[in-house]
Design brief:
The chain has helices at about 10-25, 35-45, 60-70, 85-90, 105-120, 155-165, 175-180, 190-205, and strands spanning about 5, 25-30, 50, 75-80, 95-100, 130, 135-140, 145, 150, 215, 220-225. The protein is an alpha/beta fold. Strand 6 and strand 7 form a beta hairpin.
């Protein structure tokens, strides 16, 4: 049973999510503001947080920032349609995914399932180590190295690198990356992939002066550079 923390100040939304998560076999906790969310996240150690951006007092961005300082807890953000800037900032802070209100419960549940599944390493991947040039990814240790430098990456960034490094030179479309990394069928917004790639590139540039490790292939998608 996975433990999931819902953070939203709208009781009706919390009630719907608690019902559906419990029905799916999860243990659903609830917080109605940012301060409560941090207390519960630190005391209960949930497997996933569903976090609304618009909260009274400490908003969702502040909560996300604080959770990221604590560790790599998966976060799905709930945003309103007119919060494009905040949504992008949330992804920049390391949120794993976002869903726009009003949202489909079925879609959100699919994303929850995908993120939880991704967090559990498959047995045949446990000993996998990928090395491409100076870049090294160790699945068992959940580590990414550039030469002798240890890179701090989010779970999404780790999975993106794993896909690319397991298939050097192969071009992946945005839809393929959604399915392989996020683990759900395409729901209509591939900007999730573009934002994640942008953040991954920025992280890799911190360790190397080389050109972008992840290359954009026009009208096709992304691939791992041969010049790593």
């Amino acid at each position: 049973m996975s433990k999931i923390l819902i953070v939203d100040d709208e009781p009706s939304i919390v009630e719907v999510l608690q019902y559906n998560l419990t029905k799916a076999g999860h243990h659903a906790l609830a917080a109605f503001n940012g301060e409560q969310a941090l207390v519960l996240a630190r005391s209960e150690q949930p497997d996933l947080v569903i976090l609304d951006l618009m909260l009274p007092g400490m908003d969702g961005l502040e909560v996300c920032r604080a959770l990221r300082k604590d560790g790599d807890l998966p976060i799905i953000m709930l945003t309103a349609k007119d919060e494009e800037i905040d949504r992008v900032v949330g992804l920049e802070l390391g949120a794993d995914d976002y869903v726009v209100k009003p949202f489909s419960v079925r879609e959100l549940m699919a994303r929850v399932k995908a993120i939880l599944r991704r967090a559990q390493h498959k047995p045949d991947q446990a000993a996998a180590v990928f090395q491409v040039g100076a870049l090294r990814l160790d699945v068992a240790r959940h580590q990414v190295m550039w030469g002798d430098t240890l890179l701090e990456v989010t779970s999404i960034q780790f999975e993106l690198l794993r896909v690319f490094m397991a298939n050097p030179g192969r071009v992946f479309s945005r839809d393929e990356l959604l399915n392989q990394v996020w683990g759900y069928e395409y729901f209509g917004d591939t900007r999730t992939v573009d934002s994640a790639i942008k953040r991954l590139r920025a992280r890799l540039r911190q360790a190397s002066d080389a050109a972008d490790v992840i290359v954009t292939v026009r009208d096709a998608g992304y691939k791992l550079s041969s010049d790593v």
